[in-house]
Every structure is written in C-alpha cells, then in structure tokens.
Design brief:
single chain, five-stranded parallel β-sheet, alpha/beta
C-alpha cells in the first residue's frame, strides 16, 4: 500500500497543467501515486497527461466523459490505493514538502483527517488557515471542532476551510463519504464533503502551516455570472438537510448551516447572479461617518472594495477624493479608477489614506509597507468590513454578540 494517493481532476487546463504536475512529482514524500482524471478535456490536456505518464510510473491516467469535478474525483478515489488520499486542482500547485508534512502528522496522531492552510493568489497573495486552534482533536474536542467547522462562533470567520486540496483524508472513510456527494453539486461540494467527513471522524489534526497555492484566474467561476445560481444553492441546501438526522449533527451546527446558506444567498445577490447593480448587501457604509469633515482622501486598492468606497464617497459632498494607489498599479490599467503607485503618496497632499482591503492580514501588511515608505501612521485608516449577515444574526438572537 502506498502512503498517499493524490487525485488530480483535469479539465481544459493546458496552460497550468505542467506546473501542477511538476509540483506534485517534486514532493519530498516519494511513496505516492498520482491519479490524473481527464474529465473530457477538449484542449491539449490529454496529450500533456500522456507525456507525463510516460516519464513517471507513479502517474496513473483515467479518461472519462465530462461530468464535473465531483464525478472526476470519485473516479480517482475509486482507483486510489493509498492509505491517505489528497487532492490537487490542475490549475494550482503545491510546495514540495506538503504531503510529507501532512502524512507524518496523520501517522503520528492516527488522524482520520489532517488539515493545513493555503495561499490565495490573485491581484495579491494572502495566506488562509483554519480558524480554530491548531493541534489534535479527539473525544470532546471533536464536538467543539464540528460546532465551529462552518464558522468559528467567536471570530465570525471560516472554522475549517472547505477545500479538499489542503487536506489528507484516511482513504477508507473518504471512499464511502465522497461517493454520497451528488454529481450535480456545482458549488460548495468540497465544504459538504468536509462537513460530512467530520461527522464520522474521531481524530483530526489541524496544522497552522500553508503548502497549497490556490490560483484565482480571470475566468474563474467567482468572476462569471451564473443565472442559475439559486438552483445551485438549493442543491447545497437539500444536501445539508440530509445531514440534520445524523446523530453528531447538533442544533448549533444547524444554526451554522443556515447561516452558511444565508451567506451564499447574499453573495449571489452581490456578485454571483449577474445583477446589473452589484454589492448591494456587501459593504457597510459606517466608515463614512468616521471620516472628519472636509478630509482629502486617498484610497489604497482599486479592487471591488475600492470602487465601492469611491462610489460611497459621493454621498459626502465635503470629502475630496485625491487619488487611488495600489502596489499592483501596473496590472490595473482597466480599473474603474486611475491607479498610481504608492510612491505617489510622497507627492500628494491628503488627510487620510484609507486601505480598501477586507482581509485584516493583508491590510496590516499594506499598512506596514506604507509606514516603511514614510507615510505617517496617523494618516492611515482601515475599517473592518465584517459580513453583514452576522450583524442581523446577532440582533435577532441567532447567536450571542461578543
């Protein structure tokens, strides 16, 4: 029995496939098999797979008609012979020591699942971890982990990250559980698998290390309007309803599940359904009340949040928009606002630089870089933008307020 089976679903990713395969082949844990499932690709992906299959005997190829990522993973899982099973998406890549680290933690703690973090790479890079204390979970600790799996009640952040790709699963239970995930699930299929797996797990290890590089592409599904989005959400909801009868599924977990569906619905309204008016429920305008009268404002960040802040500034006629700066200014030539490099701040006259980034970690990094540039810390502002549904959940007594 090999130590780890790595399942890679492949569909029309010729531009990224070699990088992905090279990163898996370069793992310091050599005792692994690499199962590539071509899900009916129409580009050169099948030829690349054959090329790699001929030069690495650890690579096993499966070809099937297009059926989606769930069916492709199921095909790979059925063929897997490893003690543990991991997943890599064919347009992403992984650090060389990933599977050695996850496998050693799994063996030493006899864990059913080992979970780690990932790097999210788009216009900038952020690192994301499970928002529960790292370490080993069993017995009563598993109750805590399950009840904070969807969201961490205290921090209001994602508890256990939904992605299958930054985890290792004991093969035997995974084969049974993943087979229950409907092929028709087109979103949250990873999250539903992880949630189901946790319900039947006794031992889990959470690592606060990141090895997986998750790449956001221009043609990513999160950027593509889906007029059938509500049907996709309903499919997730129908699956969750089936879990309510599981003996380990508590009332607190049901509240979390309903909040999760609420989040999916408001994300659909904001950006996923293709509405002409977007982000209607995405941004709390409270930050405008914090801005002193007649302030001259520079916005840091030309993304969706920066554009939203710029629109909202128009409701404060006394505020003066001086400029928008961003370290990635050269990549943002098509942005709604003209974007300048941060060094331009040394020439401008302004009262505040407002960082328009939701992620607290990345916002702090930006603040540190601005201070290093010579910008007065007193002029740098950042306003927390928690997901709005948390506010209403607290007011209506769904959850306790901090």
């Amino acid at each position: 029995m090999v130590k780890v089976s790595v399942v890679i679903p492949v569909y029309n990713t010729e531009r990224y496939l070699r990088r992905c395969l090279d990163s898996v082949r370069a793992q310091t844990l050599e005792d692994l098999e690499i199962i590539c499932v071509d899900d009916g690709s129409t580009d050169s992906s099948p030829y690349i797979l054959r090329e790699y299959g001929e030069k690495d005997k650890r690579i096993h190829l499966i070809y099937k008609e297009n059926g989606g990522v769930v069916s492709a993973r199921n095909a790979g899982i059925k063929a897997a012979a490893g003690r543990y099973i991991g997943f890599v998406d064919s347009d992403d890549w992984i650090e060389p020591q990933m599977y050695e680290n996850l496998y050693l933690h799994g063996i030493e703690s006899k864990a059913d699942m080992v979970s780690s973090g990932y790097f999210l790479e788009g216009n900038y890079i952020t690192v994301h971890y499970d928002d529960v204390p790292p370490g080993f979970y069993d017995d009563m600790k598993m109750d805590f982990l399950r009840e904070n799996a969807i969201f961490n009640w205290k921090t209001r952040e994602v508890g256990v990250r939904g992605s299958l790709c930054c985890k290792l699963f004991l093969a035997e239970p995974l084969k049974r559980i993943h087979a229950q995930i409907p092929d028709k699930l087109s979103m949250s299929e990873d999250k539903m698998c992880v949630l189901s797996y946790l319900l039947d797990s006794d031992r889990v290890y959470i690592m606060k290390e990141a090895f997986y590089h998750y790449i956001i592409h221009e043609d990513s599904a999160v950027h593509t309007p889906n007029p059938r989005y509500l049907e996709a959400v309903n499919a997730v909801y129908q699956y969750i309803i089936r879990l309510y009868d599981h003996p380990a599924f508590t009332k607190a977990m049901r509240t979390q599940a309903e909040l999760y569906i609420t989040e999916m619905l408001y994300k659909g309204i904001n950006s996923r359904m293709g509405f002409e008016n977007q982000n209607l429920l995405w941004l709390d305008s409270y930050w405008l009340e914090k801005m002193p009268q007649d302030f001259r404002v520079v916005l840091y960040g030309a993304g969706e949040l920066g554009e939203a802040y710029r629109r909202q500034m128009r409701f404060r006629k006394d505020l003066v928009f001086e400029a928008c700066v961003d370290a990635a200014w050269e990549k943002l030539t098509g942005a709604a606002m003209q974007v300048c490099p941060p060094e331009r701040l040394l020439e401008l006259e302004y009262d505040a630089v407002v960082i328009t980034i939701k992620n607290p970690q990345k916002a702090q990094e930006v603040k540190s870089s601005l201070v290093a540039l010579g910008i007065s810390e007193e002029k740098i502002r950042w306003y927390e933008q928690k997901e709005i549904f948390w506010k209403y959940a607290e007011v209506n007594g769904w959850i306790g307020s901090d």
